[in-house]
Amino acid sequence: MQPLLVDRLLQIADLFQKDMARAFEGTGLTPARVHLLWVLQHAGPSTQQALARLCEVTPRNITGLVDALEGSGHVRRGPHPSDRRAVLVELTPEASETMARMQEEHAALDETLLGAVAPEDRAAVQRGIAAITAHLETLVTEAAETPR
Amino acid sequence: MQPLLVDRLLQIADLFQKDMARAFEGTGLTPARVHLLWVLQHAGPSTQQALARLCEVTPRNITGLVDALEGSGHVRRGPHPSDRRAVLVELTPEASETMARMQEEHAALDETLLGAVAPEDRAAVQRGIAAITAHLETLVTEAAETPR
DNA sequence: TATTGTTATACTCTATAACTATA
DNA sequence: TATAGTTATAGAGTATAACAATA
Question: Using the CB atom, is residue A47 less than 7 Å from strand D?
Fold first, then answer.
């Protein structure tokens, strides 16, 4: 009997995690900090409230992550142009370059993985994974909305 | 342009995590503790050293997790029959039942997700995900063995 | 009155190093 | 001398609650 699809997907998740941990080993960056940089790379300069929403984490937590990343020179805190309560967090030029490089490696890994799939299966795999993602997202969203 | 396969897989990983968090909400169990129970369910009674290897975590860490799970009545520490230094950790009957139930839900989720894939794509998806898992595992293992 | 960020506090997961009891 | 588990210590990530400044 074939292993469950879910088990394979969980194994893939675990392997991704190890891969990323290795990629940032020695840089002083941790998974949570990399995630925040990733979000900043996509969203551009953002308030800490916005980052908290995007990272699905409390604002207090963002304070700590931004403190650390500011200390290591990856982000800067700047004033918000119209709201003196808020700060705008943005990537430093160096971090921005690092993230761009990461994005390229990301795309390269994608090609490599797709290359491991038999050519005649590729379209079906793309469709299938999209369907699984959509279905799982529906399940989780519905569960989250159930008052319990 | 279609989103990267890697992004979908990362999203799936994130959704699984949320799904599991929700499943154990209110039980006092945490992801690391559930993982240990899962390992015990598959491996049977084990020494803490063995659990440390299987969870890929330090023995010290296992001490803490087992302490917590013993306190909540999920596992028992028993003597090792031939080595008085070691302890054997095993699931309590109640936890064993909980894990069996979880395993069923796991299989049910698998069917649901596979059901979301078009019937004519299913075989290709199974093959493709197996190929991706194998390839990724090779990549990560090789990277881990590189002395750096 | 509501929102933004921070201070205060606490818990979980993780790691390394030193120690005890056994092998 | 090596192994199994624990004590001691430390750091990261997370959360809630209370508070200051601003809207």
Answer: no
Chain A: residue nearest B19 by CA? Answer: A140
Closest residue in B to A17 (Cα–Cα): B10
Domain annotation covers residue A67: yes
Could you give phi then psi for residue A46, rounded to 5 degrees? -140, 155
Chain A residues lying within 8 Å of B114, measured CB to CB? 5
Look up the domain containing A85 and give its range: 5-92
Collect all residues of chain A within an 8 Å Cβ-Cβ radius of residue B55.
none
Reported in sequence order, the residue ranges of B68-144 that DSSP labels E, i.e. its strands, are: 75-79, 87-91
The whole-angstrom separation of Cα B144 and Cα B121 is 34
Q: Which residues on B lie below 8 Å from A9 (Cβ)?
A: 9, 12-13, 16, 129
**Option in A107, A121, A139 nearest B124 (CB):** A121
Instruction: Classify residue B145: in a domain, yes or no.
Output: no
- Tell me the pLDDT of chain B (148 aa) as tens digits: 678 999 999 999 999 999 999 999 889 899 999 999 999 999 999 999 999 999 999 999 999 999 999 999 999 999 999 999 999 999 999 999 999 999 999 999 999 999 999 999 999 999 999 999 999 999 999 988 876 5
- Determine the protein residue whose CA lies at the shortest distance from the C1' of C7: A60
| CA-wise closest residue to B4 among A129, A23, A8 | A129
Enumerate the β-bridge partners of residue A88: A78
Q: Which helix (H) or strand (E) holds A89?
A: strand A87-91
Domain count along chain B = 1
CATH number at residue B48: 1.10.10.10
